[in-house]
Amino acid sequence: MAKILKIYPQNPQENLIDEAVKVLQNGGVIIYPSDTIYTIGCDIYNHKAMERLAQIKGIKLDKHQFSIICNDLSHLSEFTKPIETSTFRFLKNHLPGAFTFILEANRNLPTTYKGRKTVGIRVPDHIVPQMLVEKLGHPIVSTSIHDDDEILEYSTDPELIAEKYDKLVDIVIDSGYGDNNASTIVDLTTGEPEIIRQGKGIL
């Protein structure tokens, strides 16, 4: 059964964040809030956790399109090719925020990203994922929680999310109702920003 941790952005309890981080360190999979929708994530360097994440999504691990969640731009050089000053300035002006930026990947990505030429980077404007990444010491991966409802594309009620994923994940962080509008995906690999999916973030 998934454990529910009520962590609200107005006053996030550090001990509960630590509890979630410990689960991530031990290969757990958690559901957490962001500045857009609720997402499922795990430690980017834990292969077995990544396999679990892919299984939950019903896809093969080598086919995944998981985004990398950072708490600032300091992790970029670990996973991406050198970025031009103008591109970095553009990123800095829009992050943290409701964007997923597609950048050229380098060879330092974990084995689960093997052969990828690009990678999606997110820096959510939400204290909970920022604290999770900061305390873990490196990024976590993220994938959206889609809803079975014909009208709502994404699940917004953390209690219903916890009920649905009770036997699939280890922790659900309840930060109140989430948004139903995902991040805006922007491709920065060609020099000029190209919107791949319009979401909450406005350029």
From TrEMBL:
It holds the Pfam family Sua5_yciO_yrdC. Residues 14-201 form the YrdC-like domain. InterPro entries: DHBP_synth_RibB-like_a/b_dom, Sua5-like_dom, SUA5_domain. SUPFAM superfamilies: YrdC/RibB. Coiled coil: none annotated. GO terms for molecular function: double-stranded RNA binding. Gene3D superfamilies: DHBP synthase. It comes from the Bacteria. This is tRNA threonylcarbamoyl adenosine modification protein, Sua5/YciO/YrdC/YwlC family.
